[in-house]
Write a structure and sequence with these properties.
With 755 residues, the chain is an alpha/beta fold. It is built from 24 helices and 31 strands. The chain folds into 4 domains: 196 residues, Glycogen Phosphorylase B (Rossmann fold, 3-Layer(aba) Sandwich); 225 residues, Glycogen Phosphorylase B (Rossmann fold, 3-Layer(aba) Sandwich), CATH 3.40.50; 96 residues, Rossmann fold (3-Layer(aba) Sandwich), CATH 3.40.50.1000; 74 residues, Hypothetical Protein Ta0175, Chain: A, domain 2. The chain is 38% helix and 20% strand.
Length: 755
C-alpha cells in the first residue's frame, strides 16, 4: 500500500492545486474525509499526517563495519554527526529521513539488503555511486577543485591546485542526479520539507524543482562562500547560482558569506535583494528566495553526557598527571591545507624564542584529525608540519619536555573532551574555514561537571569559577560569535605568538568573564536552536506555494520556475488567434527595445523582416498599430519611414504621430526646457566619477544610464544622483524618476497639442 501511495505522490499537480495524502475513509458519497482510523469499539479518530523532514547530505549519519564472522554489514548511528544531532530542533512528532552515501564501498550484491536494513532500522536511504563517479565527484571536483576555490585558493599553475575538469563536473552532476533520484523514492512533495547540506550538492535543488515545481527545499552551505572576484573564476558559476536559487531558503553561517553570495547574484545574474522586516529575500522570477544567516551550534546534551562519565574523569586525571606543572595550549584541527597548523607551530616557536622563561613550562598539544582527501598536497602538508614541529622540539625541547606534542591517531569526541578540560588556552588558527566548532566544544568542556571537577582536584566545598581563553582566527565563521576571544590574523606569526603570551599572562578574573560570556552564548545557541530556527524560516519561505501559479522555464541547469499570482492566466496562441479573428477593431501597442528588438542588440535599427511584418499588420484596416518607446522621434521616424500607416509614440508618449503623413503631437503646453541647464551639469559630474555611465539627451528629457558601470557602485551613484536632482530641481515643472539602470528627468505630463 505504501509503495502505491508513493507512486501517487510523485504526480505533480502544479496547475490544479495540491493533492493531499490519500485519506482512509469515504463517509459520504462524493465527499472524502480527512485521515481517519477506526478503533475496536467502533469510534473514529482523526489522524493528522506525520510531518517529515528529508535531510540530504553527502554522508549518512551512520557508521558501517563488516562483520567477518557473519559476513554481513553492520551499522550504528554516528553520534558526532551534525545531521543526526539537528533532529533535536524539530517537533517531536516529526519523522526524519536521511539521504546520503556511506563511508564505505558496498558491493553490488549487498546493496539491496543494505538499503532495506538502513531504511527500516535507521531511516536512511543510501546512494550507491559507481567507484569512478565517486572518485571524480568527491575526490576530484569537490575536494580538489571546489573546496580550495571556496577557501580562496586559485589553481594558478598545474602544481598549485587542481584546475577545472569537465569530466569531474559531469561526475558532480551525475552524483547529484543519483541523490535526486533517491529523494524521489521517499518524498511526498506536497507535505515533506527537503533540507540539503553543503557544497557537494549545490545543483540538487534544480533536479528536485524540475520534477516538483512546488517542492519545499532548503539549502545550507557549511563552507565559506568566496567573494564574487574569486567565485567568478568558476567556469560553471552561473549554473551553480541558478541551481541554488531553485531553493526556497539558502543558509549561511555568517553575513560575510551571505554578502558574497548576494554580490555574485547581482554581478553575474543581475539580481538584487531587499530586506523586509528583518528577512533578506531575492526575487527570482516571481519567487522569493529567503537568505538565512545563523551559525550552527554544538549538541549540549552530548557533551554533558560525556562529561558525566567516570571514564572521562579517569582520562582527565591521567592527562593532568602527564602534563603536571605545565600549561597546556590546545589545538584540534583536520589535517587540511587551510587549518593553519604549521603557522600555529611557528607562532609557538616564536613564543619560546621571545620568552625563554616559558621553556619547559608551556606545551602545545595538537590533535590532528585524519585528512578527508588524499593527494600530493596532503602529503606535502604532513611533511611540512612534521618538519616544523621537529625543528622546534629540537631547538627548545629537553629530556622529558617537548614543546609540541602531536596526536595523530583518530580521536572521538569522547576522547577529545579530557584534552579540552585540561587546556588553559585553545588556539584555532585557520587561514580560512566555514564555521569550526572547536572553540564551542572547548568552552563547554571547560565548564566541566562534578565528575571532571573531582578529576581535576577541585575543592567541592569552595569550587573556583570556570575560566577559559580562546585565540581564534578572524577568517573563520565562529569568530563573530566569540566576542570575548583574542582574534588574530593567522598569517601574522608574530601577532599569534603575542596572543599566546597574552593568554598566558591574562588575569584569572578576565579569563572568568570571557568564559562566562562565551558559555552563555554557546549553551543557548546549540544545534537544536539552529535547526529549529532554520526549519521555522523554511516553513515561512514556503508558505505561499499554494497561492502561486508555476511554470517551468529553461533547459538543463538553466531551469527555473516562473511563479505568478493565482489570477494570472497564461495566454495561449489559440486564444489570441481566436480573439484576433473575431474582433473588428484592434489596437496593437508594441514596445521597441526588448520586444521588437533584442535588448542586447547593438544595432537598434529594425530589420527588414520586422518592417515587413509591421506593414502586414498596418495594411489590415481593422488594426491600429503603434510603436511605443522612450527613444526620440527623429530616430523612430527615420527607422520606420517605410511603414506609412504605423503610429509612433516617442519619448514615452511625449511625442505622438498617428501615421507617416500626420503631424507630431506633443504632450505639453510649454516649450520651456531651461531646467536642462540645471540638470545636465549635475549628471556630468556623476558621469565623470562613474566609469561606464553616459548621458542621453532627448528633446524633452535627459537620461543618465549606468547599465555598463559596476552594478553596486552604479546603483549607489544612481541613488545619490536622484537625491541631488530632486533637490536642485524642486521648483521646476519636471519629474525625476529612477528606472532600471537609469535616472531620468522629464516634464510633468499635460495634454497633447499638434505642431
Amino acid at each position: 500500500m505504501r509503495s502505491s501511495l508513493d507512486l501517487l505522490n510523485l504526480i505533480s499537480f502544479d496547475d490544479f492545486g495540491t493533492l493531499n495524502r490519500i485519506p482512509g475513509v469515504m463517509k459520504v458519497p462524493g465527499v472524502i474525509s480527512e485521515f481517519e482510523n477506526k478503533s475496536n469499539d467502533g469510534t473514529t479518530t482523526i489522524v493528522e499526517p506525520c510531518q517529515r523532514r528529508i535531510i540530504v547530505a553527502n554522508q549518512l549519519p551512520v557508521k558501517a563495519y563488516y562483520e567477518k564472522d557473519s559476513n554481513k554489514w553492520g551499522f550504528e548511528y554516528d553520534q558526532d554527526s551534525l545531521y543526526l544531532q539537528l533532529k533535536d530542533g524539530f517537533p517531536l512528532e516529526t519523522e526524519v529521513i536521511y539521504v546520503g552515501s556511506l563511508n564505505v564501498e558496498i558491493g553490488v550484491d549487498d546493496q539491496e539488503e543494505v538499503s532495506t536494513i538502513l531504511l527500516e532500522k535507521f531511516k536512511c536511504v543510501p546512494t550507491f555511486l559507481p567507484a569512478d563517479v565517486h572518485k571524480k565527484y568527491y575526490h576530484g571536483f569537490c575536494k580538489h577543485y571546489l573546496w580550495p576555490l571556496f577557501h580562496y585558493m586559485l589553481p594558478l599553475t598545474a602544481s598549485h591546485g587542481a584546475r577545472f575538469d569537465r569530466g569531474e563536473w559531469q561526475a558532480y552532476l551525475s552524483a547529484n542526479k543519483v541523490f535526486a533520484d533517491k529523494v524521489m523514492e521517499v518524498i511526498n512533495p506536497d507535505e515533506d520539507y527537503v533540507w540539503i547540506h553543503d557544497y557537494h550538492l549545490m545543483v540538487l535543488p534544480s533536479f528536485l524543482r524540475k520534477r516538483f515545481h512546488r517542492v519545499k527545499v532548503g539549502f545550507f552551505l557549511h563552507s565559506p562562500f568566496p567573494s564574487s572576484e574569486i567565485y567568478r573564476t568558476l567556469p560553471v558559476r552561473d549554473e551553480i547560482l541558478k541551481s541554488l536559487l531553485n531553493s526556497d531558503l539558502i543558509g549561511f553561517h555568517t553575513f560575510d558569506y551571505a554578502r558574497h553570495f548576494l554580490s555574485s547574484c547581482s554581478r553575474m545574474l543581475g539580481l538584487n535583494y531587499e530586506s523586509k522586516r528583518g528577512y533578506i529575500g531575492l526575487d527570482y522570477f516571481g519567487r522569493t528566495v529567503s537568505i538565512k544567516i545563523l551559525p550552527v551550534g554544538i549538541h549540549m546534551g552530548q557533551f554533558e553526557s560525556i562529561m558525566s562519565l567516570d571514564v572521562t574523569g579517569q582520562k582527565v586525571k591521567e592527562l593532568k598527571e602527564k602534563f603536571d606543572g605545565k600549561i597546556v595550549i590546545l589545538g584540534v584541527d583536520d589535517m587540511d591545507l587551510f587549518k593553519g597548523i604549521s603557522l600555529k607551530f611557528l607562532a609557538m616557536g616564536q613564543l619560546l624564542e621571545q620568552h625563554p622563561d616559558l621553556r619547559g613550562k608551556v606545551v602545545l598539544v595538537q590533535i590532528t584529525n585524519p585528512a578527508r582527501s588524499s593527494g600530493k598536497d596532503v602529503q606535502d602538508l604532513l611533511s611540512d608540519t612534521n618538519r616544523i614541529a621537529e625543528e622546534i622540539n629540537l631547538n627548545f625541547g629537553k629530556p622529558g619536555y617537548e614543546p609540541i606534542v602531536i596526536i595523530k591517531e583518530p580521536l572521538s569526541t569522547q576522547d577529545k573532551v579530557p584534552y579540552y578540560a585540561i587546556a588553559e588556552c585553545c588556539v584555532v588558527n585557520c587561514v580560512r574555514d566555514g564555521m569550526n566548532l572547536v572553540p564551542y566544544k572547548y568552552t563547554v568542556s571547560r565548564q566541566g561537571s562534578p565528575v571532571l571537577d573531582r578529576a581535576l582536584g577541585v575543592d567541592e566545598k569552595n569550587p573556583p569559577q570556570k575560566k577559559s581563553v580562546i585565540i581564534v582566527s578572524e577568517f573563520i565563521g565562529c569568530s563573530p560569535s566569540l566576542s570575548g576571544a583574542i582574534r588574530v590574523n593567522p598569517w601574522n606569526v608574530d601577532a599569534v605568538a603575542d596572543a599566546m603570551d597574552s593568554a598566558l599572562q591574562m588575569e584569572n578574573q578576565e579569563k572568568i568573564l570571557r568564559h562566562e560570556k562565551h558559555y552563555k552564548y554557546i549553551s543557548s545557541h546549540d544545534v537544536a536552536y539552529w535547526a529549529k530556527s532554520i526549519d521555522q524560516d523554511l516553513e515561512r519561505a514556503c508558505r505561499d506555494h499554494l497561492f502561486k501559479r508555476c511554470w517551468g522555464v529553461g533547459l538543463g541547469l538553466g531551469f527555473r520556475i516562473v511563479a505568478l499570482g493565482p489570477e494570472f492566466r497564461k495566454l495561449g496562441m489559440h486564444h489570441i488567434a481566436s480573439a484576433y479573428n473575431k474582433t473588428n477593431s484592434r489596437l496593437i501597442l508594441l514596445d521597441y527595445d526588448g520586444t521588437v528588438m533584442p535588448q542586447t542588440s547593438e544595432d537598434k535599427r529594425p530589420s527588414t523582416e520586422v518592417l515587413s511584418i509591421l506593414n502586414d499588420l498596418c495594411n489590415d484596416p481593422k488594426n491600429a498599430v503603434f510603436i511605443v518607446s522612450g527613444r526620440g522621434k527623429d530616430s523612430l521616424g527615420n527607422w520606420f519611414s517605410g511603414v506609412e500607416k504605423l503610429g509612433l509614440s516617442a519619448e514615452h508618449g511625449y511625442f505622438t504621430r498617428w501615421s507617416k503623413n500626420s503631424a507630431w503631437e506633443i504632450c505639453s503646453l510649454t516649450r520651456d526646457f531651461d531646467w536642462k541647464e540645471i540638470a545636465e551639469p549635475v549628471m556630468k559630474l556623476y558621469t565623470e566619477t562613474t566609469d561606464g555611465s553616459f548621458i542621453e539627451d532627448k528633446e524633452t528629457a535627459i537620461v543618465w544610464h549606468h547599465q555598463h558601470a559596476d552594478p553596486h557602485f552604479g546603483s549607489c551613484q544612481a541613488k545619490e544622483l536622484l537625491d541631488h536632482l530632486e533637490n536642485v530641481l524642486a521648483n521646476e515643472p519636471v519629474v525625476v524618476k529612477r528606472g532600471q539602470h537609469i535616472v531620468e528627468v522629464k516634464p510633468q505630463v499635460c495634454q497633447h497639442q499638434s505642431f
